[in-house]
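As noted in the main text, all predictions were made from sequence alone. Below is one such record, for Glutamate synthase large subunit.
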Amino acid sequence: MKMKEYPRQQGLYQPDQEHEACGIGMIANINGEKSHAIVQNAVNILCNLEHRGGQSSDTSTGDGAGILTQIPHRFFQKQCDKEGITLPDEGKYGIGMLFMPKDYDLRMEIKEIIRRIVKEEGQNCLGWRPVPVNDSFVGKVASKTKPVIRQVFIGASEDLTDRMDLERRLYIIRKRIEQEMGLEEKYKDVYFSSLSSSTIVYKGMLIPEQLDSFYIDLNHPEFKSALALVHSRFSTNTFPSWQRSHPNRYSIHNGEFNTLRGNVNWMRARQELCTSPYFNDEDLKKVLPVIDETGSDSSMFDNCFEFLHLSGRSLAHTAMMMVPEPWVNDPTIKQEKKDFYEYHSTLMEPWDGPAALVFTDGKQIAACLDRNGLRPARYYVTKSGMIVLGSEVGALDIFADDIIYKERLHPGKMLLVDLEAGKIIPDEEIKLEIAAEQPYRDWIENQMMDLEDLPEPEMAANQNADLASVLLEQQLAFGYTTEELQKIVKPLATDGKDPVGSMGYDSPLAVLSKKPQLLYNYFKQLFAQVTNPPIDAIREHIITAARTTIGAEGNLVQPGPESSRHIRLETPILTNLQLEKLRQQKIEGFKAVTLPILFLKSGGPQAMEKELEALFIKADEAFKAGATLLILSDRGVNKEYAAIPALLAVSGLHHHLIRQGTRIKMSLLIETAEAREVHHFAMLLGYGAEGINPYLAFGSINELIAIDDITGIPFEEAEANYVNAVTDGIIKVLSKMGISTIQSYRGAQIFEAVGIHMNVIDRYFTRTSSRLGGIGLDIIAKEVLMRHEQAYPERVAGDTFLQPGDEYQYRANGETHQYNPSTIHTLQHACRTNNYEAFKKYTNLLTKETSNVQSLRGLMAFKKRTPVPIEEVESIEEICARFKTGAMSFGSISQEAHEALAIAMNRIGGRSNSGEGGEQVARFIPDENGDNRRSAIKQVASGRFGVTSHYLVNADEIQIKVAQGAKPGEGGHLPGKKVYPWVAEVRGSTPGVELISPPPHHDIYSIEDLAELIFNLKNANPTARISVKLVSAVGVGTIAAGVAKGRADLVLISGYDGGTGAAPKTSLKHTGLPWEIGLAETHQTLMLNGLRDRIVVETDGKMMTGRDVVVAALLGAEEYGFSTAPLVVLGCVMMRVCHLDTCPVGIATQNPELRKKYMGDPEHVANFMRFIAAEARELMAELGFRTINEMIGRTDVLEANKAIDHWKAEGIDLSALLYQPDLPEKVGRYATVKQNHELEKTLDCQELLPRCEKAIETGERVEVTTAIRNIHRATGTIVGSAISKKYGAEGLPEDTINLNFKGSAGQAFGAFTPKGMTMKLIGDANDFVGKGLSGGKIITYPASDSTFLPENNIIIGNVAFYGASAGEAYIYGLAGERFAVRNSGANIVVEGVGDHGCEYMTGGRVAILGKTGKNFAAGMSGGIAYVLDEDGTFGNRCNAEMVHLQPMADPAEIEELREMIAKHVGYTNSKNGKRLLANWEIYSAKFVRVIPKAYLKINERINNLQNSGMSKFDAEMAAFEESKMAGAGK
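Prediction:
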């Protein structure tokens, strides 16, 4: 059915890009005893999760809240009696909860249709009941779209004796009704919340506290259930949607499925071939399509789950199949489970993404967590027989002495509550039971085979040798350049890594390029930002998987041994030998057919389309002839024949086979000369290829070896390096989207096209976004033929050779670069001499060359308008106040350059940005000459380097960097050779030791997490603006709407072409979009949501002229960022060697010798900014605008520039970019309304700050004791902020302010607390405890009347002490996942931790008195962890790549550890700690010392040098230089 409530697609807004997150809760009586108290408590839980839900601009309208319960039979019996309906026995009828239109006659018509369908399915329509509601509290927005809500009662026919038979029949009835209602627009408001004989869903567009007042039924004492699932929704939009509220029919879900498009595509391909003993063929046809593609990701998951469950699988089996554990690389997983997962991987790819899921059929409840544990799910089991699970603890107040144990869902693990058996079945038991249902091991061993085990092929000769004679022609025909060979292919083969570049990308988009481009270059990779996190495929390799299988898929719903008849591939990148093995094998069921993808050059562009369509017919014929492996091949290009682009052939055939219903019966392999870089392979996989043989890349590597360009490596090793590097690169690309497995990425189409016409997209790249139109098949074919002409010219004139290539470096007569010798020299001259006329020459070089269009804004022209006198236009100073320099960290650029930017921006009233490397404290104080070196904007990035309470209070704006334009979805890596002592000091790390910024913020896995971080930072500095940096991509507008709803003050939309100190070249060129698209989409979407006036919009990314500023304003931005241009002004000459620390002008380096060459001057940057403002003023006057505010969003002033004559650009349609939503004048176009952060409601403002004011003023000791609940978030942070403002980094003396709490603390308890604060919590806490701890002390232990063993029970949530820089903490109980991530200085004692503990840690000490989870110490480069390993198994759970595991040996260190544990016992009374201290000699020997290798080595050297008489700084510098020389191999 159509989701009626969202606006139609318009401009750049696309309804299918909406996202959501939420708070979830579940409560059940384990023994299945029904009561009204369960329902009441569930509503209570929901209300206490309200801060995890969202509200629109009308604060009485929620994003959605709901509850799922068992059907209370007695209640409905009595209610139906009043309606004249006689209900049969319990379980013999179903209830449909139905949203219906307001029109009475239409409702009667719909009821008649429903009665007819029920009758046709042999069941009895017993009657209808109006659902009593009280809508007096419902918000205005929700009221406008509130449906009429009815219940329909359907009695079971006598032949349906089994409950599941009735459920299946009700499912068929609902699917038939949905299909019939979907035929006509007038029925669009009809929607079943539920139709079941076991469960019922009450939900709506409500805030949680409205649920039970709206639905009167829920208050009745006889409304009894043994279980309840509740859900509070946070949507990225404000559009009213009653239907999209949760729960779904079987499940509640907190998270997002990143693989959705692929999952849906594959389900569409599989459903046609399903047969089931539970549905006859006729019934199966009635329920197709399985997935309603207009729903949210959660509801589509629910559709698939429902179908698989009703087809015969248990709840747990279905969940294991759809959301499997990471089984491929985990050595600790049992073989029986591995066999189950491997078998099911041949049936279905994982639904991958951060997810906490709870499912129920009314008899059992299953709950599971995604493979990486990216959502919180905590639960209590009580003595009164209850289980309470939720996104947070404390949502239901339960007395400590009633709790048997406290636990959490673990990553990839499951929990099953069987209400009929009255027990909780743990993960291992339920999974081993399901894994034993079939002989999966036997099936795999007998049916599945490895590629390596196939017979050796009969290869006529060495294919590389065959290729050598025509290598140059082939390279030319497929567009190879010397630059690609040397800078892409060669490093992949020699270094085994995707090569790195710097300074961003300043060549034109493919559609604006003068040269023929490969089709891959017209597509941009998508990436995760805010609504789900990217993942670290390197440090968290354990959860990734490159392994896939090929072969015909079996019946999804009735699989047997033959379903696993597949060939296993360890990587989809196939060598020539491997492809020949597949081509030549004669194994039954794997018939291989090679289909050429060539067309006659003489036939021109039309011949390509003709051959493409013929390819589809040949594939259909091959299927009918029994083919399973289809090998598409572009071998054979010669003077007569050119190749269809491999991507076009693969994707076109993939979609053709889906439409034919035969896709899953065949595997697509591609033998291609085109693919050579990571992006090419990722795209081929993303559009359906299952194996790729890049034969020309291998031939080229062979040639490089033959001519001694590659030396010391035999071909076999170079080939293996290349395959491994490409495979790792693909996994990195998919991990940017938060996807873990190549299997889930296959066919997932996670790309946007820029510059391809929708005719091509709809036919060959179905359901891919392409919002600006562009080239058709004719131009695609023309580009192929232009390359072919290079290889096989009509007339040969002299020697042929490869083009040099100029993608990444400017070359004369090559591709146009925005930064070229002419523009660089002219700009520097203008700014150094303060010559505005010279500056105008510079801007003319960029804006007047209509033949060399470099950007989308270059395609736009200003309409003629009545000018105004320039004297009436706002001043240069006022315009400059809107200017900023981009985030460049101290570390990536030199101190001189970093400070010059700050001084310049402070002089002109603009703002500079610290970047993510922290900032020296001395810079917070103005210089004697009046200059200010303080960066007004302090950035908070994923590494949290230098992010302390003191750092945050010294900001006018705090920027959360979610993504970076040049490498969105990726973290950062500062190699040890760039971590000079002064960089290490600011970052809280060790000189010479590498620093890693994780790809995600580990406290932002969803939109509600971002809202939480915004709230935390606002608490840390109540006067600063909080901004969020996003990168332009399809859907960024809806994310920006979520950012506005999360109460950020500003959102920055960065273009893909921004600069960077280092990024993989794959990312520089192929990830993200131009800022023009993202900015316009953001402005349009915020306008449609009525949120534009709440938030400032900024943009950046190769902003170079005043014209750029004016265009940005007209597209919707009111502030503007510059990064590369100010560096050029300071002397940068675009050598693009920033990542090598060899910058010849002393800017992108820390090397003292190179820094001597720095010639920059802050005044030059100030001149540049004033020139930009002056040029903008001139244009404003010309366009008739007196102020920037008047211009914002005025796209009616822009039009396509008709003067531009470009052979590819003529198909581009800018109308979506320039679209103006049809809205009333009163809807604000720029920020005028202040966000309400509700700080006055915090526990700090209401209670703590008033009671601590005297202590803060005088330093007098104070003690405060108070209760705390989960709704109290960031407790202590405002008090800490007040201390930091007054006392700076020093804080107060230890234990000056003592805050004691009892209860369950909300998220971010003790965040950023500085020295002098001691926070003691008796109870438990949620996620992010001690985030950014800045010298304070946190103590947590259970209440004294608790009867559980704290050392075995979870007491604090996930991601505790993230980015802690100083202080102490003592935790008597277990912590969740990612404990002490990026700790750089805190000393912490805890009883046990979850997966990924001490990840990326750079300093401090952590003592763990019990078990850890998997992947401990991944990316850890500093500090020391001490882990008690009583059973000797810790080594299996530790990632030892960067660390040594050592016994405790140094007596002084053993004594330090004993003192830490003694303090822990003193503060928390830990019985476990006492046990260890009582037997210290025995237990001290059982501790494992986890210490990073590089950290150990350099610290030992520093200590030796200090002992020899050197000062600390000199010793650090000497050790650093030694380490640097050793790293360089000198």
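The longest helix spans residues 715-736. The chain has four domains: 22-254+357-445, 467-503+518-554+566-791, 881-1176, 1239-1515. These features were considered when defining construct boundaries for the mutagenesis experiments described in Section 2.9.
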